[in-house]
């Protein structure tokens, strides 16, 4: 086997440029990298100062002098001693951040160990001054970057010697610097870029200076420093200074001034002008908390199990939707259009990762997605926000070019749009659904001149309260409430606790309750005034059914989740409102039943009126027949007996009553001017008159007619037995009568005609309720009192009236028997009245007391 020999990588001197000025291709990025190093060194502040920019000798001297352009970046961090400088700062690609994720209670901002080469990007020379709190002296390291810019394949980077020296505090001060106790001062000399441009008149004289590069630097740093996360103790500040450009700075508006502290206040006041959503991982990575706000008011918040664990465990996203008005307020606050500012930025350990979020950068695929569904999706132009990550495990690796991060599994779990199954899109889709489905895009009024309004907002002439929207707040809130569960779109099994703005719920309830009560009161009034029909009630009941079903659906949705106290109270109000709707529905159903009953009674009354008229005609026909049958008597006697004359006279009076009464009823029904109860009473009276006439016709050939019609002394027991036996054939052939006299006897003066009507009514009722056997039992209570118990083997009194049997003797009270042939509710009423006229009474005894059916007791007395 051949012998193996060792080889080693060589680090060519050209490595400096590759990881320095060639890799870091932007001045602002280079400065940010040095600021991040200061942050990691526990600095409280970083000062960025420019000197000798308007006048310098950059192009006149080969190296540099005191008049050469300079950039000073100084921090008050822990500083470095010579060991740190040798073993750490000069150790290419070494970074404590790889092994020590958190230092000085801060998450460290970088991880590559090449940020120090930003100095090469910024200038040709570097003087590094450093001091620790434990050292009395300063350490100075000088680098001429050009010494590394030679083409020699054998020249290694470590072969270039670097000079360092120690300085006393006085020697350091004599260089023109102010002493410091600890920290690092980077003096970058002979700047590679031009930071300010002179503006010349036509004669070539300088009239002004273009300082936009300073403005851009400050705005860049503002966007790169995360105010919400990185500086937990609010103890880190970045300051820009350029004494030569004080006048230029002061001439700018407040949003463009570059001298002073760099502060990211871009989102400070947006809460009250926009719709926003914030989502963050809590409880050691196990829970996901999301809160949606609209113009400062919380619409909902939800705590749920973290579906992205363990890939995403320490992250937060804040997204703002900018309506046309909100965009104008953004410009007023920042001095730039929101579209120029950027969209959704990514911050890792407190600092932004370029180029994510910059103008035109669609790193989340939002605009690409919008192109597929224009009217349903929000685009980048309508969004600003940020994603913040505290990355202690280096799951999100920044690529060496400082142009984004590695698209690994953690990146996909953070950003992928497929099925909204990512940390960002889960929150973003909730915001999007709220804006599109709930607010209907929160559009401005169609008549508004947006450009004109924009100018007024930016100038401060128009305030937020002056704005007019396409839809009013109540309309939007009602739609939000109706779609809230779809907006939240959470699995019940994943939800730990849910809050939905209680005003959304109670406001809907209050508004609907007011409308419902008003409609219900109007319905009652219309019903009382006979201005409503059954069809209208049916429509109202259908509406109530839909409303109740909708409330049931809402409560069912809420029941899936554990809600907080405020939401639970609002849900209880919703439940109470549902019960109110159910009560109203029940009352309306009862009204409909009454209305249908009244209609049935009206139809029955019309039918009865016709029937009674027919009966009256039949009586006239029967009398005619009787007259014809007794012509032979007229031939022998020539004149009627006084009793017959009386009978004919009485029948005529009865028929006149029937005729006139029916005509009055027909008139009332035709003009729809009637009261049902009055109508029933009238028909009851006509029925009695008709029955009297029929009985008189039956008695026409009998003797003692006058006594039958008027009162006469009779033996009640004998009369009832003889009447039922004599006239039994008028009832069903299957009907059987039995009697128990018990030696009872009572004589009383009464109308035989009325007594026959009473017996007919009771027997007719028994037959309707299924009886084929009726038993009469007489019981002598005293010489002046007699009870007649009338029992049948029918179905008995229905359960409906057992507990209140006296109601069956009231006018129009009835029930439908098994035969289906319901009565008019008149018979028992007039039976009791006729008995009362005789100074007698009737009452229901019970079911099954004698025979299996109902038993009634008629109480006769001669007192």
From TrEMBL:
GO biological process: phosphorelay signal transduction system
First-tier enzyme category under EC: transferase
InterPro entries: 2C_sensor_his_kinase (IPR050980), HATPase_C_sf (IPR036890), HATPase_dom (IPR003594)
Catalytic activity line of the entry: ATP + protein L-histidine = ADP + protein N-phospho-L-histidine
Histidine kinase/HSP90-like ATPase domain residues: 757-860
Gene3D superfamilies, per the entry: Histidine kinase-like ATPase, C-terminal domain
Its EC number(s): 2.7.13.3
Domain of life: Bacteria
Record key words, sorted: Coiled coil, Kinase, Phosphoprotein, Transferase, Two-component regulatory system
Record's protein name: histidine kinase
Organism: Flavobacterium gillisiae
């Amino acid at each position: 086997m051949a012998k193996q020999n060792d080889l080693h990588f060589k680090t060519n001197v050209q490595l400096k440029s590759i990881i320095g000025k060639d890799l870091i291709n932007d001045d602002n990025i280079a400065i940010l990298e040095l600021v991040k190093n200061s942050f990691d060194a526990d600095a409280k502040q970083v000062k960025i100062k420019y000197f000798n920019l308007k006048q310098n000798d950059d192009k006149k001297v080969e190296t540099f002098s005191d008049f050469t352009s300079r950039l000073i970046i100084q921090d008050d961090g822990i500083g470095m001693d010579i060991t740190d400088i040798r073993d750490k700062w000069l150790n290419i690609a070494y970074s404590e951040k790889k092994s020590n994720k958190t230092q000085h209670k801060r998450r460290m901002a970088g991880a590559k160990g090449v940020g120090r080469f930003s100095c090469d990007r910024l200038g040709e020379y570097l003087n590094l001054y450093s001091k620790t709190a434990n050292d009395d002296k300063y350490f100075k390291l000088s680098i001429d970057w050009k010494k590394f810019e030679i083409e020699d394949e054998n020249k290694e980077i470590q072969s270039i010697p670097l000079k360092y020296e120690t300085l006393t505090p006085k020697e350091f001060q004599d260089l023109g610097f102010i002493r410091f106790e600890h920290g690092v001062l980077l003096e970058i000399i002979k700047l590679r870029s031009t930071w300010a441009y002179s503006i010349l008149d036509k004669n070539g004289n300088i009239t002004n200076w273009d300082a936009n590069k300073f403005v851009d630097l400050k705005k860049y740093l503002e966007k790169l420093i995360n105010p919400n996360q990185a500086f937990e103790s609010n103890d880190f500040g970045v300051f820009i200074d350029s004494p030569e450009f004080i006048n230029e700075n002061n001439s700018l508006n407040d949003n463009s001034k570059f001298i002073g502290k760099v502060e990211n206040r871009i989102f400070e006041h947006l809460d009250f002008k926009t719709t926003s959503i914030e989502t963050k991982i809590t409880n050691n990575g196990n829970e996901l908390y999301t809160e949606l706000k609209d113009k400062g008011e919380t619409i909902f918040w939800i705590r749920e199990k973290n579906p992205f664990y363990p890939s995403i465990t320490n992250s937060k996203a804040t997204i703002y939707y900018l309506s046309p008005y909100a965009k104008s307020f953004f410009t007023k606050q920042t001095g730039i259009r929101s579209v120029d500012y950027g969209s959704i930025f990514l911050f890792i350990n407190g600092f932004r990762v370029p180029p994510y979020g910059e103008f035109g950068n669609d790193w989340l695929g939002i605009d690409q997605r919008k192109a597929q569904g224009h009217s349903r999706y929000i685009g980048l132009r309508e969004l600003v926000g940020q994603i913040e990550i505290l990355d202690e495990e280096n799951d999100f690796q920044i690529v060496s070019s400082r142009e984004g991060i590695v698209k690994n599994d953690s990146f996909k779990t953070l950003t992928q749009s497929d099925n909204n199954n990512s940390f960002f899109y889960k929150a973003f889709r909730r915001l999007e659904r709220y804006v599109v489905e709930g607010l209907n895009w929160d559009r401005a009024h169609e008549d508004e001149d947006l450009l004109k309004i924009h100018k007024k907002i930016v100038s401060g002439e128009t305030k937020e309260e002056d704005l007019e929207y396409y839809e009013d707040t109540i309309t939007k809130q009602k739609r939000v409430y109706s779609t809230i569960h779809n907006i939240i779109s959470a699995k019940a099994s994943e939800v730990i606790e849910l809050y939905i703005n209680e005003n959304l719920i109670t406001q809907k309830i209050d508004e609907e309750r007011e409308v419902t009560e008003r409609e219900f009161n109007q319905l009652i009034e219309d019903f009382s005034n006979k201005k409503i029909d059954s069809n209208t009630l049916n429509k109202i009941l259908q509406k109530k059914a839909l409303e109740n079903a909708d409330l049931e659906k809402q409560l069912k949705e809420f029941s899936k989740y554990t809600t907080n106290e405020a939401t639970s109270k609002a849900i209880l109000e919703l439940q109470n409102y549902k019960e109110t709707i159910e009560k109203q529905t029940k009352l309306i159903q009862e009204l409909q039943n009454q209305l249908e009953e009244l209609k049935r009674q009206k139809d029955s009354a019309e039918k009865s009126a016709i029937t009674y008229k027919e009966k009256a005609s039949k009586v006239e026909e029967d009398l005619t027949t009787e007259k014809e049958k007794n012509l032979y008597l007229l031939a022998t006697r020539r004149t009627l007996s006084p009793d017959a004359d009386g009978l004919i006279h009485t029948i005529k009076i009865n028929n006149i009553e029937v005729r006139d009464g029916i005509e009055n009823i027909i008139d009332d029904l035709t003009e729809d001017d009637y009261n049902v109860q009055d109508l029933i009473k009238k028909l009851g009276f006509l029925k009695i008159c008709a029955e009297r006439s029929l009985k008189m016709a039956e008695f026409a050939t009998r003797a003692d007619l006058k006594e039958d019609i008027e009162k006469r002394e009779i033996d009640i027991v004998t009369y009832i037995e003889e009447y039922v036996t004599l006239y039994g054939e008028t009832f069903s052939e299957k009907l059987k009568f039995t009697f128990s006299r018990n030696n009872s006897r009572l004589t009383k003066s009464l109308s035989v005609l009325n007594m026959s009507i009473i017996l007919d009514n009771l027997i007719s009722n028994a037959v309707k309720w299924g009886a084929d056997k009726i038993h009469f039992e007489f019981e002598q209570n005293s010489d002046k009192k007699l009870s007649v118990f009338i029992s049948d083997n029918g179905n008995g009194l229905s359960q409906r009236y057992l507990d209140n049997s006296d109601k069956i003797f009231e006018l129009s009270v009835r029930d439908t028997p098994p035969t289906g042939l319901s009565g008019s509710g008149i018979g028992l009423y007039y039976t009791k009245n006729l008995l009362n006229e005789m100074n007698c009474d009737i009452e229901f005894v019970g079911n099954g007391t004698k025979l299996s059916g109902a038993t009634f007791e008629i109480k006769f007395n001669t007192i």
